[in-house]
Amino acid sequence: MTDQPAFRFFPAAYDMGDVLERSDAPCDVCGKPSVWLYAGTVYAEGEQPEVCARCIHGGQLAAHFGGQDFQLHDADLSGASEALTAEVMQRTPGFATFNAFDWPVIDGQPLVFVGNGDADAVWNDPELRAAITAAWKEEYEEDLDEPSSYALVFRTLDGKQTRIVFDSD
Ligand SMILES: [Zn+2]
Question: End of a domain among 76, 101, 126?
Fold first, then answer.
Protein backbone atom coordinates (compact mmCIF):
# COMPACT_ATOMS: atom_id res chain seq x y z
CA MET A 1 0.00 0.00 0.00
CA THR A 2 1.40 3.35 -0.97
CA ASP A 3 2.05 6.01 1.67
CA GLN A 4 0.77 8.65 -0.74
CA PRO A 5 -2.52 7.36 -2.17
CA ALA A 6 -4.24 9.46 -4.82
CA PHE A 7 -7.56 11.08 -3.91
CA ARG A 8 -9.65 11.30 -7.07
CA PHE A 9 -12.00 13.91 -5.61
CA PHE A 10 -9.09 16.04 -4.38
CA PRO A 11 -6.05 15.30 -6.54
CA ALA A 12 -4.12 18.36 -5.29
CA ALA A 13 -4.40 17.31 -1.63
CA TYR A 14 -0.63 16.87 -1.30
CA ASP A 15 0.15 20.19 -2.98
CA MET A 16 -1.80 22.52 -0.74
CA GLY A 17 0.51 22.38 2.26
CA ASP A 18 -2.12 22.68 4.96
CA VAL A 19 -4.06 19.52 4.11
CA LEU A 20 -1.48 16.77 4.44
CA GLU A 21 1.99 17.29 5.87
CA ARG A 22 5.09 15.12 6.09
CA SER A 23 5.38 13.57 9.55
CA ASP A 24 6.73 10.43 11.13
CA ALA A 25 4.30 10.75 14.04
CA PRO A 26 2.36 7.53 14.52
CA CYS A 27 -1.11 7.38 13.05
CA ASP A 28 -3.77 6.80 15.73
CA VAL A 29 -5.59 4.38 13.45
CA CYS A 30 -2.88 2.08 12.05
CA GLY A 31 -0.11 2.83 14.56
CA LYS A 32 2.53 3.21 11.84
CA PRO A 33 4.56 6.31 11.05
CA SER A 34 2.16 8.57 9.19
CA VAL A 35 4.48 9.72 6.39
CA TRP A 36 1.59 11.95 5.24
CA LEU A 37 -0.34 13.17 8.26
CA TYR A 38 -3.75 14.79 7.89
CA ALA A 39 -3.51 18.40 9.09
CA GLY A 40 -7.17 19.28 8.62
CA THR A 41 -10.21 18.82 10.81
CA VAL A 42 -12.08 15.61 11.54
CA TYR A 43 -15.64 16.72 12.23
CA ALA A 44 -16.76 14.25 14.88
CA GLU A 45 -17.73 14.05 18.52
CA GLY A 46 -14.92 13.37 20.94
CA GLU A 47 -11.22 13.20 20.39
CA GLN A 48 -9.60 14.16 17.09
CA PRO A 49 -7.60 11.24 15.76
CA GLU A 50 -4.20 11.94 14.20
CA VAL A 51 -4.61 10.06 10.96
CA CYS A 52 -2.44 9.22 7.98
CA ALA A 53 -3.36 9.54 4.31
CA ARG A 54 -3.39 5.74 3.94
CA CYS A 55 -6.09 5.29 6.58
CA ILE A 56 -8.23 8.09 5.14
CA HIS A 57 -8.01 6.69 1.63
CA GLY A 58 -8.44 3.02 2.55
CA GLY A 59 -11.45 3.57 4.80
CA GLN A 60 -9.66 2.48 8.00
CA LEU A 61 -10.54 5.84 9.53
CA ALA A 62 -14.21 5.15 8.82
CA ALA A 63 -13.83 1.70 10.38
CA HIS A 64 -12.14 3.31 13.39
CA PHE A 65 -15.27 5.38 13.96
CA GLY A 66 -17.50 2.34 13.64
CA GLY A 67 -21.02 3.53 13.04
CA GLN A 68 -20.35 6.97 14.47
CA ASP A 69 -21.04 9.84 12.12
CA PHE A 70 -18.06 11.94 11.09
CA GLN A 71 -16.85 13.89 8.09
CA LEU A 72 -13.69 15.54 6.82
CA HIS A 73 -15.29 18.57 5.18
CA ASP A 74 -17.31 21.46 6.53
CA ALA A 75 -19.77 20.72 3.78
CA ASP A 76 -23.04 19.08 2.87
CA LEU A 77 -23.22 16.72 -0.05
CA SER A 78 -26.57 15.62 -1.37
CA GLY A 79 -27.77 13.97 -4.54
CA ALA A 80 -25.10 11.26 -4.81
CA SER A 81 -25.13 7.59 -3.85
CA GLU A 82 -24.20 6.54 -0.35
CA ALA A 83 -20.92 5.06 -1.58
CA LEU A 84 -19.83 8.20 -3.43
CA THR A 85 -20.96 10.42 -0.57
CA ALA A 86 -18.88 8.37 1.86
CA GLU A 87 -15.89 8.46 -0.48
CA VAL A 88 -15.94 12.25 -0.57
CA MET A 89 -16.98 13.01 2.98
CA GLN A 90 -15.07 10.31 4.86
CA ARG A 91 -12.31 9.08 2.56
CA THR A 92 -11.08 12.35 1.02
CA PRO A 93 -9.05 14.81 3.11
CA GLY A 94 -10.68 18.13 3.90
CA PHE A 95 -9.41 21.63 3.17
CA ALA A 96 -9.94 24.80 5.16
CA THR A 97 -12.85 27.07 4.26
CA PHE A 98 -14.35 30.13 5.95
CA ASN A 99 -17.88 28.80 5.65
CA ALA A 100 -19.75 25.55 5.39
CA PHE A 101 -20.61 24.91 1.76
CA ASP A 102 -22.56 22.56 -0.47
CA TRP A 103 -20.27 20.15 -2.30
CA PRO A 104 -21.38 20.33 -5.94
CA VAL A 105 -22.98 17.26 -7.50
CA ILE A 106 -24.07 16.89 -11.12
CA ASP A 107 -26.21 13.95 -12.25
CA GLY A 108 -25.41 11.99 -9.10
CA GLN A 109 -21.65 12.51 -9.45
CA PRO A 110 -19.80 14.58 -6.87
CA LEU A 111 -17.38 17.01 -8.47
CA VAL A 112 -13.62 17.05 -7.98
CA PHE A 113 -12.17 19.84 -5.85
CA VAL A 114 -9.43 21.32 -8.04
CA GLY A 115 -8.23 24.04 -5.66
CA ASN A 116 -8.73 27.63 -4.61
CA GLY A 117 -8.89 30.27 -7.29
CA ASP A 118 -5.52 31.73 -6.32
CA ALA A 119 -3.57 28.49 -6.76
CA ASP A 120 -1.14 28.80 -9.67
CA ALA A 121 -2.38 25.61 -11.31
CA VAL A 122 -5.92 26.98 -11.21
CA TRP A 123 -5.41 30.63 -12.15
CA ASN A 124 -3.00 29.77 -14.96
CA ASP A 125 -5.51 27.39 -16.56
CA PRO A 126 -7.35 29.53 -19.13
CA GLU A 127 -10.59 27.53 -18.91
CA LEU A 128 -10.70 27.61 -15.13
CA ARG A 129 -9.79 31.28 -15.03
CA ALA A 130 -12.62 32.07 -17.46
CA ALA A 131 -15.06 30.08 -15.31
CA ILE A 132 -13.92 31.90 -12.16
CA THR A 133 -14.13 35.39 -13.64
CA ALA A 134 -17.57 34.69 -15.15
CA ALA A 135 -18.92 33.30 -11.87
CA TRP A 136 -17.35 36.17 -9.94
CA LYS A 137 -19.11 38.73 -12.12
CA GLU A 138 -22.42 37.01 -11.54
CA GLU A 139 -21.88 36.69 -7.78
CA TYR A 140 -20.37 40.09 -6.97
CA GLU A 141 -21.40 42.16 -9.99
CA GLU A 142 -17.86 43.36 -10.61
CA ASP A 143 -14.84 42.21 -12.56
CA LEU A 144 -12.22 40.04 -10.93
CA ASP A 145 -8.75 41.22 -11.88
CA GLU A 146 -6.57 39.24 -9.52
CA PRO A 147 -6.52 35.66 -8.23
CA SER A 148 -8.89 35.12 -5.31
CA SER A 149 -8.89 32.35 -2.76
CA TYR A 150 -12.64 32.92 -2.28
CA ALA A 151 -13.34 30.84 -5.37
CA LEU A 152 -13.45 27.11 -4.68
CA VAL A 153 -13.04 25.46 -8.05
CA PHE A 154 -14.68 22.13 -8.84
CA ARG A 155 -14.71 20.10 -12.01
CA THR A 156 -16.52 16.96 -13.08
CA LEU A 157 -14.46 13.75 -13.07
CA ASP A 158 -14.42 13.82 -16.88
CA GLY A 159 -13.15 17.43 -16.77
CA LYS A 160 -15.96 18.71 -18.95
CA GLN A 161 -17.91 20.89 -16.53
CA THR A 162 -16.75 23.38 -13.95
CA ARG A 163 -18.53 24.77 -10.90
CA ILE A 164 -17.36 27.63 -8.73
CA VAL A 165 -18.40 27.85 -5.07
CA PHE A 166 -17.72 31.16 -3.31
CA ASP A 167 -16.31 31.08 0.18
CA SER A 168 -15.76 34.65 1.35
CA ASP A 169 -14.47 35.62 4.78
ZN1 LIG B 1 -2.88 5.19 9.46
Answer: 101
pLDDT in tens, 84-143: 999 999 999 999 999 999 999 999 999 999 999 999 999 999 999 999 999 999 999 999
| Cα torsion angle, 59, 62, 67, 70, sign | negative
The alpha carbon of 159 and the centre of ligand 1 are apart by a number of angstroms equal to 31
Amino acid at 120: D
Distance from residue 26's CA to the centre of ligand 1 (Å): 8
* Phi, psi dihedral angles at 66 (to 5 degrees): 60, -130
Domain with 132 in it? 111-169
CA distance linking residue 17 with residue 88, whole number of Å? 20
Last residue of a domain, one of 101, 123, 143: 101
Q: Ligand 1 centre and the CA of 33: distance in Å? A: 8
Q: Are 50 and 36 in contact (CB under 8 A)?
A: no
